[in-house]
Write a structure and sequence with these properties.
Helices cover 71% and strands 4% of the residues. The protein contains eleven helices and four strands. Helix 5 packs antiparallel against helix 6 and helix 8 packs antiparallel against helix 9.
Length: 327
Amino acid sequence: MSLTIKGRPIRFSLKWLKPPPVPPDGAMTLFEHLRELRYRLVVASLAIIAATIVAAFFYQFLLELLTAPYRSGIDDLKENNPEAVTELVNINLTSPLKLAVQVCLVAGLVLSGPVWLYQLWAFIVPGLLAKEKKWALIFIGAASPLFAAGVATAYYVLPKAIAVLLSFTAEGVANLQDINLFLSFMLRLMVVFGIAYLIPLLVLMLNIVGVVTASQLTKYRTLVIFGTFVFGAVATPSTDPFSMLALALPMTLLFLATEALAHLLDRRKAKRIGAIGDELLASDKALRELSADGPPSTNGHAPERSQTMLEPSSEDLRDEDEPPRAR
């Protein structure tokens, strides 16, 4: 027996999960764009859910991996203060479930990254030109390893930061850390480091589109490097210089590489503009020569008209003397 609503049968179909066909010319209506967006979101969501379920089977391993910087930082702290009391705790009844969902969801987002990134790319790419597609692929290809390098740097400097921050705990005070808050702090720090590693790439893209020139990067190089080291000192709250250098030094090297590439790109642009200018000058010179030549010269005299055009023929004179014949 089929289900009906007001006498109309309900038909279950999964055809709406298929992407809408793209016309040959690439033009799509608003509803076709919304239908494609729905398809991309559904596929990306299913991929994230599937990856999250898979990550749930490795929950304990993932939790140990995320809390390893905290344990390492506590070991460094207890070398100077063996009596320090520090523990990761769950505050209320829902914290264990919240922690498990948070850990598995983050792992699912990372594992399904290629799928939802491709869905995002597939939705945007029909509206890009061939040159824009090329630069977008270059940006994505360079941004992924740079962001991963920033996350790895944050994971490396986090134990030092934890040891320094917990060293301010007064004697006789136990330091109990809510594990959910600690993971939130850890994820935010990793995202900040990852974005910091992307800043030189963003500057290079601004140079490509003509917003920033290489001469401007050279002019403000000292200020940028100084700001980079200040940012490294603030983002890594540890007393040793190695943690600061772990962030500031790679960012400085990336900025210098960006400046060198910007100079190279600006020289190529200047050569291309110069070649176009030479072509325009050559065509303008040819037009000037043609206008200077003018029409064919007649030595200042009007052309002579032929004798046949000035004098009527004898047959014409004879026709004029004869009277008209009666019909």
